[in-house]
Amino acid sequence: MRRAAVILWDVDGTLVSCGGAGRRALERALAERCGPLDGALAGLRLDGMTDRLIVREALALLAHPFSDDACDGVLARYLEHLAVEIRNPGYQVLPGVEAALRALRGRVPQGLCTGNVAQGARVKLAQGGLDAYFDWGPDAICGFAADGEAREHVVAAAVRRASARLGRTLDPAEALVVGDTPRDVAAAHLVGCPVLAVATGRYSADELAASGADQVIASLEDAAALGALAG
Question: Which residue numbers are catalytic?
Answer without folding.
Answer: 10
